[in-house]
Design a protein that fits this description.
Length: 214
């Protein structure tokens, strides 16, 4: 019998020779019972106590108060100052399409790499005017200069609803500063106006002769 052929028989013999048995080795350490309360039960008990003591109603009322306050006066846009010097620049909104854009039938209508200017299809019909709604001089300047136009007055600070009631015209708010960041605006008042296929952005301080109340 060759060594290769003997190997299976040797393994079988070892398996047959090794007795198998189950043993109880006893307790090898201290075993503690689970005493931590169920997390869901804790939450339920906490909510029940809050409900009984009236704390839930108080929390809901506080949340309502904060929500109304935030709507009436949104968080000011950080990093925006009053314009101290005039600054103007061109902003080209043209973008390069990263991938093919197809219609519902799979036909490519805009190929990847195509440069698209949104102003070709969606022009900026009215100026965008960014200002500090808490600055009386900026408010007077904006409402006086754009009194007869449909310019969009966009606040970076202030109470838009209160101003709408007081001045009887619509005010917007740049929530989170997304627009000023997009255009690179660092000071107000600032205007964004279309000129051909680009936008002209201008930061300008309010001149003394323009500070008359509207």
């Amino acid at each position: 019998m060759t060594p290769l052929r003997a190997a299976p028989f040797l393994v079988a013999g070892l398996l047959m020779a090794a007795p198998t048995s189950a043993r109880d080795y006893g307790q090898q350490g201290t075993v503690w019972s689970v005493i931590e309360p169920d997390l869901l039960e804790q939450i339920h008990a906490r909510l029940t106590r809050l409900e009984k003591t009236g704390e839930t109603a108080k929390l809901n009322e506080e949340l309502k108060r904060r929500t109304i306050a935030r709507v009436n006066r949104p968080e000011p846009v950080a990093g925006i100052n009053a314009a101290a010097a005039a600054r103007s620049w061109r902003f080209d909104p043209t973008i390069s399409v990263e991938r093919d854009i197809a219609d519902d039938k799979g036909r490519v209508i805009v190929a990847a790499g195509t440069r698209v200017n949104p102003l070709d299809t969606v022009p900026l019909r009215v100026p965008l005017v960014f200002l500090d709604g808490d600055d009386p001089e900026q408010l007077a300047w904006a409402t006086r200069r754009y009194a007869s136009t449909k310019a969009k007055l966009i606040l970076v600070r202030g109470a838009p609803l209160e101003l709408m009631k007081a001045r009887q015209r619509r005010f917007y708010f740049d929530q989170g500063g997304s627009l000023v960041k997009h255009f690179g605006i660092r000071a107000v008042p600032a205007t964004v106006e279309q000129q051909g296929r680009v936008l002209i952005i201008t930061e300008q301080p309010v001149r003394p002769k323009e500070r008359a109340s509207s």
